[in-house]
Amino acid sequence: MNIVKDFKNDLLKRRELVVGIEAEQNPGIEYSKEEAVKKFKVDKELVVVKKVGSSFGSNKFNVELFIYDSVEIKDKVEPKIKQKKK
């Protein structure tokens, strides 16, 4: 895992990262989150993976993720998941 872009957003109190991962198949959101937790030594609750993407036929993936300063700030900033109506 190598860091492509690292930006500290003081207004939203988070660290915005784009990291590169080499894998044979799409690493997925959960695997990317676990790798970020290991690399940056933060709590799993503070990491939000926004996008996992690559070029066609390439084994290099770009992962966009946010690392928040606290869980309360994350809950305020991140959009809520809508519940289905019954």
Could you characterize what this model shows?
The protein is of the alpha+beta class and 86 residues long. It has a single domain (2-77), classed as Alpha-Beta Plaits (2-Layer Sandwich). It has two helices and four strands; from the N terminus they run E-E-H-E-E-H. The protein has helices at 28-40, 71-77; strands spanning 2-9, 14-22, 47-54, 60-68. It has a four-stranded antiparallel sheet with strand order 1-2-4-3. A hairpin with a 5-residue loop joins strand 3 (47-54) and strand 4 (60-68). The radius of gyration is 14 Å and the shape is globular. It starts with a strand and ends in a 9-residue tail after the last helix. The mean pLDDT is 89.
Chain-wise SSE layout:
Blueprint: E1 2-9, E2 14-22, H1 28-40, E3 47-54, E4 60-68, H2 71-77
Antiparallel strand pairs: 1-2, 2-4, 3-4
Q: How far is it from the N-terminal to the C-terminal residue, by CA? A: 43 Å
Spatial ordering of strands, largest sheet = 1-2-4-3
User: Which class best fits the helix and strand makeup?
Assistant: alpha+beta
- Looking at the structure, what is the overall shape? globular
What is the N-to-C order of secondary-structure elements (H for helix, E for strand)?
Answer: EEHEEH
Helix percent band: 10-25%
User: The CATH topology is what?
Assistant: Alpha-Beta Plaits
Q: Domain count, please report it.
A: 1
Overall residue-averaged pLDDT value: 89
Q: What gyration radius follows from the Cα positions, in whole Å?
A: 14 Å
Total of helices: 2
Q: At the first level of CATH, what is the class? A: Alpha Beta
Strand content: 35-45%
Low-confidence stretches: none
Give the number of DSSP strands: 4
What composes the largest sheet?
Answer: 4 strands, antiparallel
CATH structural architecture: 2-Layer Sandwich
